[in-house]
Amino acid sequence: MKLNCESGLRLDAEIGRLEEELIEETNRRAEADAGRDARIDAAVQADMREQAMQFVADFYATRRAEFEEFHASQDWERTYQQIKEERRAKILGR
After folding, report:
1. pLDDT tens digits, residue range 52-87?
2. pTM to 2 decimals?
3. How far apart are CA 87 and CA 94, in angstroms?
4. In angstroms, rounded to a whole number, what is the distance separating the alpha carbons of residues 80 and 73?
């Protein structure tokens, strides 16, 4: 049992060392990659464009009724004021 425990600890240490080497090599390659910034920027732009389009679609879907109600109210008020002015002019014109 002791042998298995020691083997397991050595294996864990080796895996940890290999993982550190992998991380270091990945960091080195990422820093040396001349096209990395452009790829990241293109991916960010694409994601942001997609999310902006989704935001607009959601906005239209969830807020259209609110805007329709507002503009219908504005139009009703315009018609009301027009009729009011017509009647006022009639009364004053007598």
Report:
1. 999 999 999 999 999 999 999 999 999 999 999 999
2. 0.55
3. 11
4. 10
Could you give the dihedral angle defined by the CA atoms of residues 88, 89, 91 and 92, in that order, rounded to the nearest 10 degrees? 110
Cβ–Cβ under 8 Å, residues 24 and 16: no
* The 3-state secondary structure of 58-78, one letter per residue: HHHHHHHHHHHHHHHHHHHHH
**Token couple for 45:** 């732009």
Cα-trace Rg, the chain? 35
Report percent pLDDT > 70 for the chain: 96
- Give start and end residues of each alpha helix (H) in the chain: 2-32, 36-93
What pLDDT is stored for residue 31 in this prediction?
95
Instruction: From 86, 82, 35, select the one nearest 74 (Cα to Cα).
Output: 82
What is each CA distance from 83 to 44, 53, 77, 87, 91, in whole angstroms? Answer: 55, 42, 10, 6, 12
